[in-house]
Design a protein that fits this description.
Layout: H1 9-20, E1 24-30, E2 36-41, H2 49-66, E3 72-75, H3 79-93, E4 100-108, E5 114-118, E6 124-128, H4 136-147, E7 151-160, H5 175-182, E8 186-192, H6 193-202, H7 206-209, H8 212-222
Parallel strand pairs: 3-4, 3-6, 6-7, 7-8
Antiparallel strand pairs: 1-2, 4-5
Length: 226
């Protein structure tokens, strides 16, 4: 499974940035799966130019470090559209300009028509999104890419929550593991839950460190086995 080492300086920098930007918050939240979570990561709160620019830079630095080879980016509607644009800009700042495309939720019957917008989808395509919950939307994106005659090679996300996608005791995989094992796509995350916990363990901020016990308990209950 592709996870970011907890000693990774880039991951630690990103987690701290997310906290300072108000994107990573602590409290009482309900996840999409209906679980009560002590933290919430909301990429929709990268909501101004400066935050979005830095986010794109973090994606770019992680992707370059990963060694994953790709020819273009694809952003699934809706969040992935903005994220793919930000990543394309971040990569250009690192000296690598790549094309990107995205899809519409509804097909357009005038103008250029169709559901795909942007550069022609071809070659090795990297899907850009914020998180992976159960992997279903990534399968849809991969199918669209293949239908266009291209090859999906991976998915880049912000935070890997490293938790099981289902409460079924017979299925202990996370959405990330599903995407890697069943869809055959490499997942590259800027940071993981392990990185978040490492920050909480080492921070000198007492208020921030106070969240460690609850986050650790959540991980013990819902975390993946490996």
């Amino acid at each position: 499974m592709s996870t970011t080492p907890t000693t990774d300086a880039l991951a630690q920098e990103f987690v701290m940035f997310s906290v300072e930007a108000g994107v990573l918050r602590f409290g009482d939240f309900t996840t999409k799966a209906g679980r009560k979570s002590p933290y919430f990561f909301n990429t929709g709160l990268f909501d101004d130019g400066a935050k979005l620019m830095r986010l794109g830079e973090f994606y770019a630095r992680r992707l370059i470090a990963s060694g994953l080879e790709f020819d273009m980016l694809f952003g699934p509607a809706y969040k992935g559209i903005t994220l793919a644009a930000a990543v394309a800009i971040g990569l250009a700042k690192e000296g690598r300009s790549v094309p990107y495309a995205y899809n519409r939720k509804e097909a357009k019957d005038h103008g250029e028509g169709g559901t795909l917008v942007g550069a022609q989808v071809r070659g090795r395509v990297l899907i850009i999104d914020d998180v992976i919950t159960d992997g279903a939307s990534k399968r849809e994106a991969a199918d669209m890419i293949r239908a266009a005659g291209a090859t999906p090679v991976g998915v880049a996300i912000t935070m890997d929550r490293q938790e099981r996608a289902s409460d079924d005791p017979a299925n202990r995989r996370s959405g990330v593991q599903y995407v890697e094992q069943e869809l055959g796509l490499r997942v590259v995350s800027i940071a993981t839950l392990a990185d978040l916990m490492a920050l909480l363990q080492t921070t000198g901020d007492a208020a921030l460190a106070a969240n460690l016990e609850r986050v650790a308990a959540y991980r013990a209950r819902y975390g993946i086995d490996a």
